[in-house]
Specification:
Blueprint: H1 6-17, E1 23-25, H2 46-56, E2 60-62, H3 66-69, H4 88-91, H5 95-110, E3 114-118, H6 122-134, E4 140-144, H7 164-169, H8 172-185, H9 190-203, E5 207-215, E6 229-237, E7 240-247
Amino acid sequence: MGALHDGHRALVKAAVDSGAGVVASIFVNPLQFNPNEDLSRYPRDEAGDLAALRACGCHLVWLPDVATMYPPGGATTLDVAGPAQQWEGAARPGHFRGVATVCAKLFGQVRPDRAYFGEKDWQQLQVVRRMVADLHLPLEIIAVPTVRESDGLAMSSRNRFLTEDERVIAPRLHAILSATAIALQSGSAVDAALAAADRDLNQADFQVDYLALVDAVTMLALRLVAPGARLIVAARLGSVRLIDNIAA
């Protein structure tokens, strides 16, 4: 959706390194914003984005407008369930319907052999993978590891909205998540480890939307650590909503 940072550039680099022709799309998708979310506030920097993509070796940029993506009279969207139902799906009703619909449209327009998605949006990655499998779309979804600042904060276009004081606090999200993973690996009970992490986040001035241990594919909550488990979190710091996840 534009406002590109090093996380996005890592996706382009992975695609370029494969030796394929590389296409990037930039489209701030109104369908994945809820009525109480400020679409107009989403950061935009088309000139900077184009320069960054050119420098990364991207061959083509697709910049559709809203009328192209959602023409008058359009009557079809994708109804998603499974991994889309909880967490971000519950916190932002309709969000994954917008994500799946716009991805299906972009895949139909560009016809890629592979599409690269960042692991930072872990649930989104699982929703898109499920959608591609269910609709028998002829492409492979490639996951690229989360790119972080030197202090551990996951890169996000929204990080620019953190105040100076909030930016100092923000890395605590990843630090607490990492400490929770270590506690679980050391044998702590899931409920106790999550409760301790929730307290630590609240004490650090985060407002927690959700914090959970889930199956990495289905996104169902786990009561015991199992192979493929993932710790996920969404929390607000001031006006900025941050998400993160790590393997558990």
